[in-house]
Amino acid sequence: xxxxxxxxxxxxxxxxxxxxxxxxxxxxxxxxxxxxxxxxxxxxxxxxxxxxxxxxxxxxxxxxxxxxxxxxxxxxxxxxxxxxxxxxxxxxxxxxxxxxxxxxxxxxxxxxxxxxxxxxxxxxxxxxxxxxxxxxxxxxxxxxxxxxxxxxxxxxxxxxxxxxxxxxxxxxxxxxxxxxxxxxxxxxxxxxxxxxxxxxxxxxxxxxxxxxxxxxxxxxxxxxxxxxxx
Length: 230
Prior knowledge:
This protein is an alpha+beta fold and 230 residues long. It has 2 domains: 113 residues, 3-Layer(aba) Sandwich (Rossmann fold); 82 residues, Beta Barrel (Elongation Factor Tu (Ef-tu), domain 3), CATH 2.40.30. 18% of the residues lie in helices and 27% in strands. It contains 4 helices and 11 strands, in the order ααβαβββαβββββββ. The strands form 3 sheets. Strands 5-6-10-8-7-11 form a 6-stranded antiparallel beta barrel. It has a two-stranded parallel sheet with strand order 1-2. A hairpin with a 2-residue loop joins strand 8 and strand 9. It starts with 5 loop residues before the first helix and ends in an 18-residue tail after the last strand. This is EF-1a protein. It is found in: Cytoplasm. Pfam families: GTP_EFTU, GTP_EFTU_D2.
């Protein structure tokens, strides 16, 4: 928010701008767009110097976190009347557009929607072994036991013989559903429920990890590497 005092609050020690940028990086969000909103309430309205001041300060902060500012689009916008959101605004003639440089190539544009369209679709790790941490387990009348979770890596298909670690339970997947629709396969990022044979709800619990019993099933590890943000 570009308003007087608003940006300062957001970028202060416990401000939300800092918090959101750090959270995004910590959660593995690799691509960032900075929309400098409320440009209509700067002093004077739609101030170029205020935008440049914010751009400089936010660039410096996100660089410290781990982002490359050259790959981040900075767009001055006002959601109030939609300035620079879908089409270039006549109120900010000084803004010549945003431009980013990244190893996959360059991109540029004038408004926010173009910056969104320039985001590169990340590849889904379908070739890695299946890993699906359980978020919950339900018993559904007429269907049976339905574990629920998000596919992190690999592919889950009906007919797969899965093993649940660490309990070492093995069973066949009867069906896979997402948003009440049957799937032929679930890929990383999909939040799914899957029906399993001959396993009771009491035998499974949140935190168990499902894998393919025939292809690199999940096993206990002596040690692991973690990224901890304090």
